[in-house]
Design a protein that fits this description.
The complex is a heterodimer of chains A (about 350) and B (about 150).
Chain A lengths: L5 E6 L6 H15 L4 E6 L10 H8 L4 E5 L3 H10 L5 E3 L11 H6 L17 E6 L6 H27 L5 H8 L15 H4 L10 E2 L9 H5 L5 E3 L5 E3 L11 H5 L5 E2 L6 H4 L11 E2 L1 H5 L3 H15 L25 H11 L3
Parallel strand pairs in A: 1-2, 1-3, 3-5, 4-5
Antiparallel strand pairs in A: 6-9, 7-8
Chain B lengths: L4 E5 L2 E5 L4 E2 L4 E6 L2 E6 L1 H7 L2 E6 L6 E2 L4 E7 L2 E6 L4 E6 L1 H5 L3 H4 L8 E5 L7 H21 L6
Antiparallel strand pairs in B: 1-2, 3-4, 4-5, 5-11, 6-8, 7-10, 8-9, 10-11
Chain lengths: ~350, ~150
């Protein structure tokens, strides 16, 4: 597929909700008519297993991509990343109809996360739009048009930069390659029946590496062997299918809110922007729960342990010992020595 | 029987009947046929407003721990997980609400009941204690609701 075209992927909702299907069809029908776009429809992104044709298709896409789906953009982006479909997350300008006080949002911009980031990110942009935000297909079609323009401008700017000198190796490779080698099958080889074959529903955590600090609290907490570390000693979701359906406990213990369960009902766990109000809705869980997150997490874990015929462990295993409240003391000599060792960079 | 009390949420009076026991998660209960029948307090209903969906994560007959997550609610203004107000056994859910949850808004202390629970309902707060609890936390609650927008700590 040409890098010069924008790929638009529409990820269907789970189930057969007629209203959702109608919106999907209206968006797809309108976009297919647009020049410069390649439009495809795949089932619910989160459910696509490694052998699903929809996933093979997504892997074959090389250029910029827009993904429209029924989940938070952050969730969609990191599900793709998990599947090895990587790129740079670009914020869409389509904002959910936001709460009453616009101006209050301005001053409450959350600090940029300081996670470890994704690895091997190719030079392309991925936009994720949440189909739950608006009822009219027009809104989405307009945004996709705007994105297509933005991508074209970005490509042209990069080309100009190259013509005027100082090309980076990546750019050289990109523009000197006359016809791109295709290590992966042509997307046209996938029939729409194959693409749309309905997958089984799945349940597993998705890590947002823009927030994850590799602190390993999740791997300590989960007693089902879901988490592991990769060759670079980075935390990853090693055994997705060990995860217990419906249990979001590790997400609650994550100090950075970096663990997403896209299908969970609480927005903060399903991947809403951290601190955001979803549409007009406030999350009252704290008010109605009174237990703190760690306690809830331990209870959820105990329930799954007992279901597995194992002993409940309560708060005795893998509970983070956070000292955030501890007052900062002036550094003593030992602290200084440790700092000096850190600074040695060995 | 203690008298009914009213908690003023801004200008909105949340009526708190005297013959209920109150839990900190804004559910309250009274004894019906030897079990505790739980519902939302008017305070909770006012915060949530029109209920759209109610979903239970446990089944009738399940034993629940105090504050175990038992369900989820979505309303015009809010979403929230729901937690068990008491340890015990949930014996019945109000099936009517699953088809049409509007009774929660129309008659929260009556037809809008949520579930029956076998447990120590008598240990919960009295109306006066709940009123005091609301009073003490009202500042904080307002901050939470407005400030949800600012910080999530």
């Amino acid at each position: 597929m040409s890098r010069q075209r924008l790929t638009v992927v529409l990820s269907q909702a789970q189930g057969k909700n007629p209203t959702k299907r109608a919106l999907e069809e209206a968006v797809a029908a309108a976009l297919i008519m647009e020049p410069g776009l390649d439009v495809s429809v795949v089932p619910y992104l989160y459910d696509l297993g490694p052998d699903h044709t929809g996933r093979l298709f997504l892997e074959s896409v090389q250029g910029d991509m827009v993904v429209l789906g029924w989940m938070y953009p952050r969730a969609a982006f990191w599900v793709l990343d998990r599947d090895g479909i990587k790129g740079h997350f670009v914020e869409s300008q389509l904002k959910p109809p936001s709460a009453d006080d616009e101006d209050e949002d301005e001053e409450s911009q959350p600090e940029p996360p300081n996670g470890i980031g994704a690895v091997d990110v190719p030079d392309r942009s991925i936009y994720c739009l949440d189909l739950r935000d608006f009822n009219s297909h027009e809104t989405y079609v307009q945004e996709v048009r705007r994105i297509a323009d933005e991508c074209r401008q970005r490509r042209e700017a990069k080309l100009k930069e190259w013509i005027q000198g100082n090309p980076t190796v990546v750019q050289l490779g990109r523009y000197l390659r006359a016809d791109e080698p295709q290590p992966v099958p042509e997307p046209s080889r996938f029939t729409s029946e194959q693409l749309l074959q309905q997958p089984q529903r799945r349940w597993y955590p998705v890590i947002d590496y823009s927030r994850c600090t590799n602190c390993m609290e999740c791997i300590d907490f989960c007693l089902f062997g879901v988490y592991g570390v990769d060759k670079l000693d980075r935390i990853n979701v090693e055994n997705q299918d060990n995860c217990k359906r419906g249990c979001p406990a590790c997400s609650r213990v994550c100090p950075e809110h970096a663990i997403i369960f896209p299908d969970y009902k609480t927005p903060a766990i399903a991947g809403a922007a951290v601190g955001a109000v979803t549409g007009l809705k406030i999350d009252l869980t704290k008010l109605f729960g009174c237990a703190d997150a760690i306690q809830i997490a331990a209870q959820e874990r105990d329930r799954e342990l007992v279901n597995d015929g194992r002993e409940a462990v309560g708060l005795t295993v893998g509970i983070p010992k956070r000292q955030a409240d501890k007052p900062k003391e002036p550094k003593d000599d030992l602290d200084k020595l440790m700092d000096a060792l850190d600074a040695l960079d060995i | 029987m203690p008298d009914e009390m009213t908690f003023l949420m801004g200008k909105y009076p949340a009526v708190l009947p005297g013959d209920f026991r109150y839990a900190r998660n804004h559910m309250c209960c009274r004894e019906v046929e030897g079990r505790w029948r739980f519902n939302f307090t008017s305070y909770a209903v006012r915060l949530m407003q029109d209920v759209y969906f109610l979903d239970w994560a446990v089944s009738a007959g399940d034993a629940v721990q105090l504050l175990q997550q038992i369900g989820h609610i979505e309303t015009s203004k809010a979403v929230s997980d729901l937690f068990a107000p008491l340890a015990g056994t949930v014996t019945t859910f109000n099936a009517e609400l699953l088809n049409d949850p509007s009774a929660i808004n129309v008659d929260n202390y009556g037809a809008g009941w949520l579930f029956d629970l076998d447990g120590a309902g008598g240990s919960l707060m009295s109306v006066a204690e709940y009123h005091q609890y609301l009073d003490e936390n009202w500042e904080k609650t307002q901050r939470l609701i407005k400030g949800k927008i600012n910080t999530e700590d």
